[in-house]
Protein backbone atom coordinates (compact mmCIF):
# COMPACT_ATOMS: atom_id res chain seq x y z
CA UNK A 1 0.00 0.00 0.00
CA UNK A 2 1.34 3.44 -0.91
CA UNK A 3 1.83 5.91 1.90
CA UNK A 4 2.40 9.53 0.92
CA UNK A 5 2.51 8.48 -2.76
CA UNK A 6 5.48 6.18 -2.01
CA UNK A 7 5.68 2.40 -1.92
CA UNK A 8 9.35 2.01 -0.94
CA UNK A 9 10.87 3.54 2.18
CA UNK A 10 14.45 3.62 3.42
CA UNK A 11 15.07 4.96 6.89
CA UNK A 12 15.69 4.27 10.56
CA UNK A 13 12.98 2.90 12.84
CA UNK A 14 12.39 5.51 15.56
CA UNK A 15 9.61 3.80 17.52
CA UNK A 16 6.86 1.22 17.47
CA UNK A 17 3.80 1.96 19.58
CA UNK A 18 0.93 -0.50 19.32
CA UNK A 19 0.21 -0.81 15.60
CA UNK A 20 2.04 2.38 14.57
CA UNK A 21 5.61 2.39 13.24
CA UNK A 22 7.55 5.66 13.10
CA UNK A 23 10.58 5.87 10.81
CA UNK A 24 13.03 8.66 10.06
CA UNK A 25 13.24 8.89 6.26
CA UNK A 26 14.78 11.75 4.28
CA UNK A 27 15.00 13.87 7.45
CA UNK A 28 11.26 13.55 8.22
CA UNK A 29 9.47 11.33 10.71
CA UNK A 30 6.81 9.26 8.97
CA UNK A 31 4.14 7.19 10.74
CA UNK A 32 2.54 4.14 9.18
CA UNK A 33 0.33 1.31 10.32
CA UNK A 34 2.11 -1.98 10.89
CA UNK A 35 -0.62 -3.69 8.85
CA UNK A 36 0.48 -1.64 5.79
CA UNK A 37 3.97 -3.18 5.86
CA UNK A 38 4.09 -6.44 3.93
CA UNK A 39 7.90 -6.79 3.68
CA UNK A 40 10.87 -5.18 5.39
CA UNK A 41 14.60 -5.65 4.86
CA UNK A 42 16.24 -4.81 8.19
CA UNK A 43 19.95 -4.04 8.54
CA UNK A 44 21.17 -4.07 12.16
CA UNK A 45 23.57 -1.40 13.38
CA UNK A 46 26.14 -2.44 15.97
TrEMBL record:
<dbReference type="InterPro" id="IPR036847">
    <property type="entry name" value="RimP_C_sf"/>
</dbReference>
<protein>
    <recommendedName>
        <fullName>Ribosome maturation factor RimP C-terminal domain-containing protein</fullName>
    </recommendedName>
</protein>
<feature type="domain" description="Ribosome maturation factor RimP C-terminal">
    <location>
        <begin position="2"/>
        <end position="46"/>
    </location>
</feature>
<dbReference type="InterPro" id="IPR028998">
    <property type="entry name" value="RimP_C"/>
</dbReference>
<dbReference type="Pfam" id="PF17384">
    <property type="entry name" value="DUF150_C"/>
</dbReference>
Amino acid sequence: MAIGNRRKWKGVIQSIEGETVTILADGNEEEMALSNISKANLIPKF
